[in-house]
Amino acid sequence: MTPQSSISCTGPSPGKNMSRHYTNNNCSFDDVDKLMSALQLAVHIPTFLLGLVLNLLAIRGFSAFLKRKKQPEYTATSIYMINLAVFDLLLVLSLPFKMVLPQVETSSQAFCTLVECLYFISMYGSVFTICFISLDRFLAIQYPILVSHLRSPRKTFGICCILWILVWIGSTPIYTFHGEMDKYKCFHNMSDGTWSAKVFLPLEIFGFLLPMGIMGFCSYRSIHILLGRRAYTQDWVRQRACVWTIATNLVIFVVSFLPVHLGFFLQFLVRNGFIAECRVKQNISLFLQLSLCFSNINCCLDVFCYYFVIKEFRMGIKAHRPSTVQLVHQDTMISRG
Hints:
GO terms for molecular function: cannabinoid receptor activity. By secondary structure, this protein is mainly α.
């Protein structure tokens, strides 16, 4: 088996997709693939079960907030959170295919492409949705009066639809992942063109570096502003929950997606001949596969973000709810009238 591939880093079979540079390379990745096959079962099965339950509960929970007509300020965040949960749910549903299909050969490229699209659309859909959640929250904190006119349910839903369109358009390179072959292994045997600079660099820059930069800036500014209000705010408990939400969102994003895209970059160097030593390529293969495997846990980690957002919502509702003393006073005034 030759050493190069796209996702699992397992090499392509000799054929049209293999360049001269890799033809005589005898570096084997069998041990890495066997280790990862066992590890994926241990990680993906509980991830599938937990992710399915948690994301369905998240969709149900935030849908309940959408029905609260008296709290329109929660609508925009709820729509974004439902959108994120739907992307996470797509990732969860792709995991059984990702465990089984790389182990068998198929003659249907269309089916492989469908499964691969489902996986990568859910991944980058989550990236962009988390980015927009951070941007929306920053604007709401920095410019509350201005943003209140821009956070209507229709506009927020329209932004989510645009995200779906952009992610689907961005997935078009997946259709040429395998080139022309007789047998396919899904998530394996990617063509050399997949790792060309014109395909890889836009993916790395616009699919990860730009969203991470926007999210890092928005998160830093939001936390800085909220902490600056601590001395004179009357609702610090609620704002502290907001700080935890922002910080948790940022940590989950970095932990989930930074190692994966670092692995993509290292594999890009391998596929373009910058790294040739067999042991190094095997380590990069293992690192990339481990990163992808554990990044899938993101669909469960997002539940911490959901928890803090719902906690923040409930604090806000409780803060606006009249106290028992107020209700008694109101009843007294009515009875006297």
